């Protein structure tokens, strides 16, 4: 069950990661377009200082540009945090199910798969009553009898 939850979490984080990457790329494109427009308008302002009506438009575009840059920075930070969370979840899942286990196969087998921790507990339950048998056997026989 824990493996299923972790695998589902990895799939969800991967989807979120793709969405954030696409959104970041979209914001980068907007920033480039706004940068180009600002450069064009600055050239126009330099070329014709008599036309002061362009100045408020440049200011508005610079404000939009700074807002887009800020939003792109936020998306980058969110993407980095999501990537880090995904790596942590993948490491956790790998420690639970093992390194060479296919996650998609785990998702296909709903509820029937047991993690390492569960298997260890079951095996410990089977082994724990046995030490008394070994010690009683060791008390009644000598090591030389074992060689025969």
UniProtKB/TrEMBL annotation:
One of its GO terms (biological process) is cytoplasmic microtubule organization. The keyword Coiled coil applies. It comes from the Eukaryota. GO terms for cellular component: centriolar satellite. The keyword Transit peptide does not apply. Residues 10-92 form a coiled coil. Keywords: Coiled coil. PANTHER family: COILED-COIL DOMAIN-CONTAINING PROTEIN 13. This is Coiled-coil domain containing 13. It comes from Sphenodon punctatus (Tuatara). The gene is CCDC13.
